[in-house]
């Protein structure tokens, strides 16, 4: 029994529908400030209305801090990951975990019929897997003792 991405989005506090974005021409400082304010680890990067990439705290640590760059003088497009992998609401948490493990990613935007409808993190998926396992254990205990 594997939960779908759509089900995971529905359990998130804001229904998982809020996806924070930033322009590719904004400074990395603005991106990190927004992530800190919202308590998130990634932003989708827009070029106008088009998704141009994704920028994460990891990008900041590895491509700004470790290279001794200035976050106020570096644009998001200079450190973002341009090739963004998407999943659909119908995909399972197991499929997403496999993709994240294989690609060493921590965030997956969710697209439905060409529309961006949410984002799932590795934390969201782990929480879902644990809940699924607890449900199975509960059912087995009920079966054994019931």
UniProtKB/TrEMBL annotation:
<dbReference type="InterPro" id="IPR051257">
    <property type="entry name" value="Diverse_CBS-Domain"/>
</dbReference>
<dbReference type="InterPro" id="IPR000644">
    <property type="entry name" value="CBS_dom"/>
</dbReference>
<protein>
    <submittedName>
        <fullName>CBS domain-containing protein</fullName>
    </submittedName>
</protein>
<dbReference type="InterPro" id="IPR046342">
    <property type="entry name" value="CBS_dom_sf"/>
</dbReference>
<feature type="domain" description="CBS">
    <location>
        <begin position="15"/>
        <end position="71"/>
    </location>
</feature>
<keyword id="KW-0129">CBS domain</keyword>
<dbReference type="Pfam" id="PF00571">
    <property type="entry name" value="CBS"/>
</dbReference>
<feature type="domain" description="CBS">
    <location>
        <begin position="80"/>
        <end position="135"/>
    </location>
</feature>
<dbReference type="InterPro" id="IPR044725">
    <property type="entry name" value="CBSX3_CBS_dom"/>
</dbReference>
